[in-house]
Amino acid sequence: MFPTIFATQRCMKIAYKQYGSAHHLSNKANAFRHALWVVLIAKKCLKWRKNEEKAISWAKAFTDWHEDFSPNEPLERAMDLHNNAVGSYYFAELKHTCEDEIVSFLKHKAAEAVQIKTVSEVVNYKNRLVYIN
User: Fold this and answer.
1) What is the DSSP code (8-state) at residue 98?
2) How high does pLDDT run on average in the chain?
3) Is residue 35 classed exposed, middle or buried when 0-12, 13-18 and 19+ CB atoms within 10 A define those classes?
4) I need a labelling partner for 23 at 20 to 30 A (CA). Which of 29, 31, 37, 56 fits?
5) What is the DSSP letter of 114?
6) Distance, CA of 53 to chain centre
7) How far is residue 130's CA from residue 133's CA, in Å, rounded to a whole number?
8) pTM here?
9) Alpha-carbon distance 35 to 73, whole Å?
């Protein structure tokens, strides 16, 4: 559990540094934060447990659980769950990179995020970050 706590704290610090409080909205900054959160948790857990599959599985399960613990409207929930999954997908590419490179990569991906207006649209953007407004 400690790797998850440390990764969560680090994620929030980075999100505030990069976007200020804007990452709390349903925007590209929020998409960045969700993907970063999964990547950082998986990276910390991988260092701790040395099992990539379990690290990714735990990171996704924990961040998805957060959506149940702190529920949003359906569209926001779909956006967050999708961006968590995209973070899991990106982890394969980022697992051996340093934090600065991870942040740069995810900022670039967030800048290219696609705006969605309905829950059903999420499936159209399998490996891309999405945002609402």
Assistant:
1) -
2) 93
3) buried
4) 56
5) E
6) 17
7) 10
8) 0.93
9) 19
